[in-house]
């Protein structure tokens, strides 16, 4: 059961990585087009700044999902290292539960904001307002999925990090 879940989460993480690379490449192309348009042809690209802000937000939340998946997110590791070995596992499980709870709240709030802003246009932006909140929800969902996967591994005493195998 957990092996199938682990394989499913690995596939989701691979899709997330591909989306992250696509966003970064798109950001590069839009920024390059904006620079050429503005400083060489003296014609500003309409809404390119809004597209760049959306892509930046997207890369932040997709990147956060990748960071949690690869255990490269910011943690207070020194706090865990100074604890006695007997309570370390419990603290790590509690930490995952707190993270999952926070992410579930953020996902719920994101969906509420998606509903409230449906159809709202921000200035001349080609991205509707709900698109920004959808990115937050998607990124937090990826983080939560990875935390749940790690939590299940900790509960069954299997290695969470690849280095532990």
List keywords for this structure.
165 residues, mainly alpha
Helical amount: over 70%
Topology as H/E string?
Answer: HHHHH
What is the averaged pLDDT score? 90
| Shape by Cα distribution | elongated
Spell out the blueprint of helices and strands.
Layout: H1 2-39, H2 48-69, H3 77-81, H4 85-117, H5 129-155
Please tell me about this protein's structure.
By secondary structure, this protein is mostly helical. 76% of the residues lie in helices and 0% in strands.
Short description:
By secondary structure, the chain is mostly helical. Helix content is 76%, strand content 0%.
């Amino acid at each position: 059961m957990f092996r199938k879940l682990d394989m499913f989460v690995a596939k989701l993480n691979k899709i997330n990585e591909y989306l992250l690379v696509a966003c970064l490449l798109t950001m590069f192309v839009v920024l390059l087009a904006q620079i050429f348009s503005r400083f060489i042809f003296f014609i500003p690209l309409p809404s390119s700044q809004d597209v760049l802000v959306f892509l930046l937000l997207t890369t932040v939340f997709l990147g956060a999902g990748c960071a949690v998946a690869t255990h490269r997110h910011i943690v207070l590791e020194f706090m865990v290292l100074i604890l006695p070995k007997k309570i370390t596992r419990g603290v790590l499980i509690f930490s995952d539960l707190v993270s999952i709870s926070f992410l579930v709240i953020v996902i719920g709030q994101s969906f509420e904001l998606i509903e409230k802003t449906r159809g709202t246009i921000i200035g001349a932006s080609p991205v509707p307002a709900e698109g920004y909140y959808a990115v937050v929800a998607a990124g937090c969902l990826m983080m939560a999925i990875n935390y749940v996967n790690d939590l299940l591994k900790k509960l069954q005493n299997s290695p969470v990090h690849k280095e532990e195998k």
